[in-house]
Amino acid sequence: MAQHGHSEACCSVPPSKHDYKEKGSYFEIDGMKTYKTGPSTATSAILIIYDIFGFSPQTLQGADILAHADDEHHQYQVFVPDLFYGKPADHSWYPPDTKEKGEKLGAFFQGPAAPPKTAEKIPKIVKEIEEKTGGTIKKWGGLGMCWGGKIVSMTSTEGTLFSAVAEVHPAMVDPKDAEGITVPICMLASGDEDKEAVAGFEKNLKVKNHVETYHDQVHGWMAARGDLKDEKVRKEYERGYKKLLDF
Fold first, then answer.
1. For position 7, what pLDDT does the model report?
2. Strands, DSSP E only, in the chain?
3. Using CA atoms, how far apart are residues 159 and 84, in angstroms rounded to an integer?
């Protein structure tokens, strides 16, 4: 996997089918359909930047876990904005084993999924959520999944609105990004990420951090590629979310 491009797994592993009925609701933020879950009285919030498959059931289930799993000790409002405006990466592009599929995927990464374009939107999204929730939120955390991990790296630098961040099975891991991160970060990598890039990223961090690799899990196991019918994957999915809450 090239450090500055998409990971090989990100471009080759198809999403997994999963049925889940989400616990939250939807409202509009900056023209985007946004999933909201967790108690509206919570003063801490988490913004999830999903993977290229958008509102996958596994991602929404993960949002619900973060919102409700630790109700006794700490409560969170969790938000997942639809950054692709209802047009995420198409499942039919995977695997991109034809020229047409490859071109469509490439155009997606250069267009709607271009990281700089997305990163620019994050401060406005956070501010509008704060306004629409009546000023209850006092502290923010950010969670990026796969592609979203790159966005988190880009928005966790000097002046960030986040107090702490996390990246799970991040795509486009670049050790240089770590040098600019100014808040505590938790990175949970899969066995598919570039080991040298992950190690370099950890080495360059100057903030409190926890970097761990789930060697037997595929890229995306905590999001759209998580086959939660597989008991081992399900356990590691749950362990990953527990680790995020503990961090």
1. 47
2. 25-29, 32-37, 44-49, 76-81, 139-145, 164-168, 185-190, 209-214
3. 25
